[in-house]
Amino acid sequence: MLMDELRSSGKELGDHAEQLELFALAVRYAADHIIITDPAGCILYANAAAERLTGYSLDEMRGATPGLWGRQMGKEFYERFWQSVRDRKEQFIGELRNRRKSGEVYDAEVRVAPVLDRATGEVRCYVGIERDITAQKNLERTKNEFLSLVSHNLKTPLGTVAWYAEMLLDGTVGTLTHEQSAYVREVQTANARMLQLVRQLLSVSRIELAVTASGGEAVDLGEVVATVLRERAAELARRQLTLDTYYEHPLAPVRGEQVLLREAVENLVANAITYTDPGGTLTVRVFHKSANEEVYGHHFLEDRVVVVVGDTGCGIPRAEQERLFEQFFRASTARERDANGIGIGLHLVQRIVRKLHGDIWFRSDVGTGTEFYLAFPHLRATEA
Amino acid sequence: MTEKPHTILIIEDDTAQREALLTRLQREGFAVDTARNGSHALTLLETYTPDLILLDLNMPVLSGKGFLEQVQARRTHLPPIIVLTNDERLSEVSEVLEHAVTDYLVKADTSMERLVALVRERLTASVSCVSSG
């Protein structure tokens, strides 16, 4: 009896040892770079891929911090990092640039998770996983440069066509017959549409180029929204749409790029106008939400400035909602109403919002309308 | 007595766009000269000073930026300069705006009508500047 028990617990121990060895081997030879640090960030362990990626040996890394191959990003990046993993004890996911021992700079996607002590809830260690995404990033950069080059070279001849068409119509070189004028106006309209498409393509690459290198500026979202709506007032009236607005005063500034935020709001408002029938209503609201307060189904751990753009338009079929932010995707209800879009507006908005550390989501029902929600973190008082 | 027309110098390498600007501005009654690039314009500027300059950026031989650098090194007084380009890169815009540039317009977003209005506005402003100074 006793012998049996001993034998089985011995076997369990053996199993444990075997499992531990298996885990150690798995971590050691995993394809992704894995490191473990103490709560202060000093490296306790690094696997083979980490040695390969950084160029430093385990011995060189042990006791040092990941700053050994990091420190390529702005102060703000690391602040956000520590706020997440140390203060909020949440996983951090981000993209950053690092420097190998050889001096070569590379792009990496990093995920760092705090491991908490079961009894005290304090951080026991951090597990960091890094993946080299340099090739992917280079491809993206090439794509954007290409896009920018093509767009720029397309704009020049289109601009020339626009000028000459305008000069034909304004009588610079003599008067046209009624029919000739009508034809030139067709040329003008088609050309303007083409220019609009090129502009949108250009915007996609511009967002990437504007890469918050400047770190952003303090932006009053209420003002951005008010400006966009002012410019659209005539169009709203022409389409017989009622505008219902609410601005909270005073409003905390958000960190962003005025031009980009404006582009985001403009796209949402333009969509709301395009996809709503005469007699419908546009609702635009800008206000605060405190930490942990519910924001249309979302919770945030910090205060947010929220923008809501709602319409009573055609709505988006449920089955298509998941793909709404994809580049070149257009909802069937949108295609029915306007055959000329290319499905880039919402994709742009999402990229802008993400770039500025905000969130975007929506609620929509066919025939009832759509509401888009944007939420941005406040610019902290210390930053302003 | 007829008033002497304002003089405008267009610096633009694209023939079609240069011709369009020339035709339209002449129709408005301005005395217009053209240059194919920055270097050509610098030569012209040795003989006279126009009341206003329209400047493209992306040009062979001497670009718009190169022109701005050189012309500022050579002259203390410059007429209003309106940059007219399709280059919207933020880095370019901010670099060019460091020079004595009055306006930065994106060609494809600017109608002839708007351009003419702006040219008139700048000419009026610079004249009243001169007369009051």
What's a concise summary of this model?
Chain A is of the alpha+beta class and 384 residues long.
Q: Number of DSSP helices of chain A? A: 10
Distance between the termini of chain B: 26 Å
Structural class of chain B: alpha/beta
Distance between the termini of chain A: 74 Å
**What is the average of the pLDDT values of chain A?**
86
- Give the structural class of chain A: alpha+beta
The proportion of residues forming helix of chain B, as a percent range, comes to: 40-55%
Estimate the strand proportion of chain B. Answer: 15-25%
What order do the SSEs of chain A take from the amino end to the carboxyl end, as H and E?
A: HEEHHHEEEHHEHEEHEEEEHHEE
Q: Which ranges of chain A are low-confidence, i.e. pLDDT below 50, for 5 or more consecutive residues?
A: none
Mean pLDDT over the full residue set of chain B: 85
Strand content of chain A: 15-25%
Give the tally of β-strands of chain A: 14
Taking the sheet with the most strands of chain B, its summary is: 5 strands, parallel
Helical coverage of chain A, percent range? 40-55%
Q: What is the global morphology of chain A?
A: elongated
Radius of gyration of chain A: 28 Å
Q: What is the ordering of alpha helices and beta strands of chain B? A: EHEHEHEHEH
- Name the chain pair with the biggest interface and residue counts per chain: A-B, 22 and 19 residues
Number of helices of chain B: 5
Arrangement of strands in the largest sheet of chain B: 2-1-3-4-5
